[in-house]
Amino acid sequence: MGFSKSGKDPNEALRLELHRLVDVYCNHHQSEPEGEDEEELALWELEDGVDEALLNTVDLNYQNDSQDSSPLLPEVQQELRSRLGKSSVISREGQDFKSRDPRESFSGRVLRLFQRLLGCLLQKWRALLAWLRAMAAGLQALCRAVEAVWSVFKDFCSSSVQALEFGIQT
Known about the structure:
By secondary structure, this protein is an all-alpha fold. It has helices spanning 10-28, 36-65, 74-84, 89-99, 106-169.
C-alpha cells in the first residue's frame, strides 16, 4: 500500500485503505468461490492487508510525532510484525469447513468468517498494544535509572575537575 508522508492525515488514509480491503474481500465473494482454498486465501489476504495498513499507519503516526521525523527502525518494524503473526481463525475455520451446518448459506458463512477474523485482528492488536505499554513502562523505569546514574556521574565529573584544578593550582 505504501502511504506517503504528505499533508494528508494518515488515519484518514488508513480508514480509506481498510474500506478498500473490505471491498476487495466482498468483491471476491460476489459469486461463491470454487473451493475452501480460495476462501482461506481471501481471508489470509484480508488479514495481511489489514495488518500491513495498520503497521504503515503506526509508522506514519510515529514519524509525525517524533522530533526527527524518522521512520521506525527496521528491527522495530520486524518485531511488531513478528508479534502480530497470523491469527488462528483460518486454521480453526478449516476444521469447521467440513463440519459446518449445511443449512448455513454461503453469505452467512462469509459474514461469520469475516466477523471471526475481525475479532482475531482486534485480539492481536490489543495484545500488541499491551506489550508495547509494558515495554514503555520498563523503558521509563530504565530512563529514570540512567538519569539517576547520569546525575551522579555528572556531579562526579564536575567535582573531579574542580579537585584537579585545585590540585594543579597549589
